[in-house]
Amino acid sequence: MQRNTYISTAAAVVLMVGGPVAAAAAATSGAAGTPSAATAAARADIDATGAAEAAVKHYPGTVVSLDKDGAVWHVDVIGKNGKHAELTVDTRSGKVFTEHGDDDGDDDDNAKAKKQLLAAKVSAQKAVKAALAAHPGQVRSVDWDDDDNGGARYWDVEIQPKGGGATQHVHVDATTGKATVSSSDSDSDSDSDSDDDNDS
Q1: Contact, 59 vs 100, CB < 8 A?
Q2: pLDDT one-digit tens code per residue, 88-97
Q3: Do residues 113 and 168 touch, judged by C-beta distance below 8 A?
Q4: Are 158 and 146 in contact (CB under 8 A)?
Q5: What's the pTM value of the predicted model, to 2 decimals?
Q6: Mean predicted lDDT score pLDDT of the chain
Protein backbone atom coordinates (compact mmCIF):
# COMPACT_ATOMS: atom_id res chain seq x y z
CA MET A 1 0.00 0.00 0.00
CA GLN A 2 2.84 2.36 0.95
CA ARG A 3 4.65 1.42 -2.29
CA ASN A 4 1.63 2.53 -4.34
CA THR A 5 1.60 5.87 -2.51
CA TYR A 6 5.26 6.46 -3.41
CA ILE A 7 4.61 5.61 -7.07
CA SER A 8 1.57 7.93 -7.20
CA THR A 9 3.55 10.76 -5.61
CA ALA A 10 6.46 10.26 -8.03
CA ALA A 11 4.09 10.26 -11.00
CA ALA A 12 2.47 13.50 -9.79
CA VAL A 13 5.88 15.18 -9.48
CA VAL A 14 6.85 14.10 -12.99
CA LEU A 15 3.58 15.44 -14.39
CA MET A 16 3.95 18.76 -12.55
CA VAL A 17 7.52 19.26 -13.77
CA GLY A 18 7.16 17.69 -17.20
CA GLY A 19 3.62 18.86 -17.89
CA PRO A 20 4.41 22.38 -19.18
CA VAL A 21 7.35 21.09 -21.19
CA ALA A 22 5.26 18.31 -22.67
CA ALA A 23 2.44 20.72 -23.45
CA ALA A 24 4.85 23.09 -25.21
CA ALA A 25 6.36 20.21 -27.16
CA ALA A 26 2.90 18.98 -28.14
CA ALA A 27 1.99 22.47 -29.37
CA THR A 28 4.97 22.61 -31.71
CA SER A 29 5.20 18.97 -32.71
CA GLY A 30 2.95 16.44 -34.33
CA ALA A 31 2.76 12.78 -33.41
CA ALA A 32 5.98 12.01 -35.23
CA GLY A 33 7.91 15.03 -33.91
CA THR A 34 7.18 17.10 -37.03
CA PRO A 35 5.96 20.73 -36.85
CA SER A 36 2.23 21.02 -36.21
CA ALA A 37 -0.11 22.12 -38.97
CA ALA A 38 -0.59 25.52 -37.30
CA THR A 39 3.17 26.13 -37.09
CA ALA A 40 3.74 24.98 -40.68
CA ALA A 41 0.87 27.15 -41.92
CA ALA A 42 2.31 30.20 -40.16
CA ARG A 43 5.62 29.69 -42.00
CA ALA A 44 4.21 28.81 -45.43
CA ASP A 45 4.39 31.49 -48.10
CA ILE A 46 1.70 31.88 -50.72
CA ASP A 47 3.01 30.32 -53.92
CA ALA A 48 2.53 31.53 -57.51
CA THR A 49 -0.77 29.67 -57.97
CA GLY A 50 -2.12 31.04 -54.69
CA ALA A 51 -1.06 34.56 -55.65
CA ALA A 52 -2.76 34.27 -59.05
CA GLU A 53 -5.95 32.96 -57.48
CA ALA A 54 -5.98 35.72 -54.85
CA ALA A 55 -5.38 38.37 -57.52
CA VAL A 56 -8.23 37.27 -59.82
CA LYS A 57 -10.55 36.91 -56.85
CA HIS A 58 -9.80 40.56 -55.98
CA TYR A 59 -9.80 41.75 -59.62
CA PRO A 60 -11.60 39.22 -61.86
CA GLY A 61 -9.83 38.61 -65.14
CA THR A 62 -6.83 36.90 -66.73
CA VAL A 63 -3.33 36.88 -65.26
CA VAL A 64 -0.66 38.30 -67.58
CA SER A 65 2.35 37.86 -65.31
CA LEU A 66 3.52 37.13 -61.76
CA ASP A 67 6.80 38.11 -60.21
CA LYS A 68 7.96 37.39 -56.65
CA ASP A 69 9.77 40.28 -55.01
CA GLY A 70 10.74 39.55 -51.42
CA ALA A 71 7.58 39.17 -49.34
CA VAL A 72 5.16 40.11 -52.13
CA TRP A 73 3.98 38.90 -55.52
CA HIS A 74 3.45 41.50 -58.25
CA VAL A 75 0.57 40.28 -60.41
CA ASP A 76 -0.59 41.88 -63.67
CA VAL A 77 -4.19 41.15 -64.62
CA ILE A 78 -6.39 42.05 -67.58
CA GLY A 79 -9.81 42.51 -66.04
CA LYS A 80 -13.09 41.29 -67.46
CA ASN A 81 -13.75 44.94 -68.25
CA GLY A 82 -10.68 44.95 -70.53
CA LYS A 83 -8.68 47.19 -68.20
CA HIS A 84 -5.23 46.33 -66.95
CA ALA A 85 -4.41 46.25 -63.22
CA GLU A 86 -1.15 45.82 -61.34
CA LEU A 87 -1.74 44.08 -58.00
CA THR A 88 0.43 43.19 -55.03
CA VAL A 89 -0.24 40.00 -53.05
CA ASP A 90 1.35 39.65 -49.60
CA THR A 91 3.04 36.24 -49.38
CA ARG A 92 2.22 35.83 -45.68
CA SER A 93 -1.34 37.11 -45.32
CA GLY A 94 -2.62 36.73 -48.88
CA LYS A 95 -3.96 40.29 -48.81
CA VAL A 96 -4.26 41.94 -52.22
CA PHE A 97 -3.59 45.60 -52.95
CA THR A 98 -4.18 47.42 -56.23
CA GLU A 99 -1.07 49.35 -57.23
CA HIS A 100 -2.29 50.71 -60.53
CA GLY A 101 -5.19 50.23 -62.93
CA ASP A 102 -5.67 51.61 -66.45
CA ASP A 103 -6.98 50.76 -69.89
CA ASP A 104 -3.49 50.01 -71.33
CA GLY A 105 -4.00 52.55 -74.14
CA ASP A 106 -4.58 49.77 -76.66
CA ASP A 107 -2.41 50.32 -79.71
CA ASP A 108 -2.53 47.68 -82.47
CA ASP A 109 0.33 45.55 -81.10
CA ASN A 110 -0.94 45.71 -77.54
CA ALA A 111 -4.50 44.86 -78.61
CA LYS A 112 -3.20 41.88 -80.63
CA ALA A 113 -1.15 40.54 -77.69
CA LYS A 114 -4.10 40.99 -75.33
CA LYS A 115 -6.41 39.16 -77.74
CA GLN A 116 -3.96 36.24 -78.01
CA LEU A 117 -3.61 36.03 -74.23
CA LEU A 118 -7.36 36.04 -73.64
CA ALA A 119 -7.79 33.32 -76.29
CA ALA A 120 -5.06 31.08 -74.82
CA LYS A 121 -6.28 27.66 -73.69
CA VAL A 122 -3.63 27.48 -70.96
CA SER A 123 -3.85 30.06 -68.16
CA ALA A 124 -0.93 31.25 -66.03
CA GLN A 125 -2.14 28.99 -63.22
CA LYS A 126 -2.17 25.91 -65.49
CA ALA A 127 1.25 26.89 -66.87
CA VAL A 128 2.68 26.93 -63.33
CA LYS A 129 1.38 23.40 -62.67
CA ALA A 130 2.76 22.10 -65.97
CA ALA A 131 6.15 23.75 -65.43
CA LEU A 132 6.50 22.37 -61.89
CA ALA A 133 5.59 18.88 -63.11
CA ALA A 134 8.44 19.12 -65.64
CA HIS A 135 10.93 20.82 -63.33
CA PRO A 136 10.15 20.78 -59.57
CA GLY A 137 11.16 23.75 -57.47
CA GLN A 138 9.89 27.17 -56.44
CA VAL A 139 8.36 29.49 -59.05
CA ARG A 140 9.98 32.94 -59.13
CA SER A 141 8.09 34.46 -62.07
CA VAL A 142 5.57 33.72 -64.81
CA ASP A 143 5.39 35.79 -68.00
CA TRP A 144 3.27 35.67 -71.13
CA ASP A 145 5.50 35.77 -74.22
CA ASP A 146 3.99 38.36 -76.52
CA ASP A 147 7.02 38.88 -78.76
CA ASP A 148 5.95 39.07 -82.37
CA ASN A 149 8.32 36.38 -83.64
CA GLY A 150 5.75 34.36 -85.60
CA GLY A 151 6.14 31.34 -83.33
CA ALA A 152 3.70 29.70 -80.95
CA ARG A 153 2.73 31.72 -77.91
CA TYR A 154 3.93 30.36 -74.57
CA TRP A 155 4.30 31.06 -70.88
CA ASP A 156 7.83 31.54 -69.55
CA VAL A 157 7.99 30.12 -66.00
CA GLU A 158 11.17 30.79 -64.01
CA ILE A 159 11.84 28.14 -61.37
CA GLN A 160 14.40 27.96 -58.57
CA PRO A 161 15.39 24.28 -58.15
CA LYS A 162 14.68 22.69 -54.75
CA GLY A 163 18.37 22.07 -54.07
CA GLY A 164 19.35 25.62 -55.05
CA GLY A 165 21.49 26.61 -58.00
CA ALA A 166 20.71 28.56 -61.15
CA THR A 167 17.11 29.33 -61.99
CA GLN A 168 15.59 27.40 -64.88
CA HIS A 169 13.17 28.75 -67.48
CA VAL A 170 10.39 26.40 -68.53
CA HIS A 171 8.32 27.29 -71.57
CA VAL A 172 4.70 26.11 -71.49
CA ASP A 173 2.82 26.08 -74.79
CA ALA A 174 -0.28 28.27 -74.46
CA THR A 175 -2.35 25.91 -76.60
CA THR A 176 -1.20 22.39 -75.67
CA GLY A 177 0.17 22.96 -72.15
CA LYS A 178 3.36 21.09 -73.07
CA ALA A 179 6.29 22.14 -70.86
CA THR A 180 9.81 22.37 -72.29
CA VAL A 181 12.88 23.20 -70.23
CA SER A 182 14.73 25.98 -72.01
CA SER A 183 18.47 25.28 -72.04
CA SER A 184 19.39 28.69 -73.42
CA ASP A 185 17.66 30.62 -70.60
CA SER A 186 18.95 28.63 -67.60
CA ASP A 187 21.11 31.36 -66.11
CA SER A 188 21.13 32.74 -62.61
CA ASP A 189 19.93 36.30 -62.09
CA SER A 190 23.54 37.56 -61.89
CA ASP A 191 24.46 35.70 -65.08
CA SER A 192 21.44 37.19 -66.88
CA ASP A 193 22.45 40.67 -65.79
CA SER A 194 26.01 40.20 -67.04
CA ASP A 195 24.73 38.73 -70.32
CA ASP A 196 22.53 41.79 -70.81
CA ASP A 197 25.55 44.02 -70.21
CA ASN A 198 27.56 42.10 -72.80
CA ASP A 199 24.81 42.38 -75.38
CA SER A 200 24.80 46.17 -75.26
Answers
A1: no
A2: 999 999 999 9
A3: no
A4: no
A5: 0.67
A6: 74
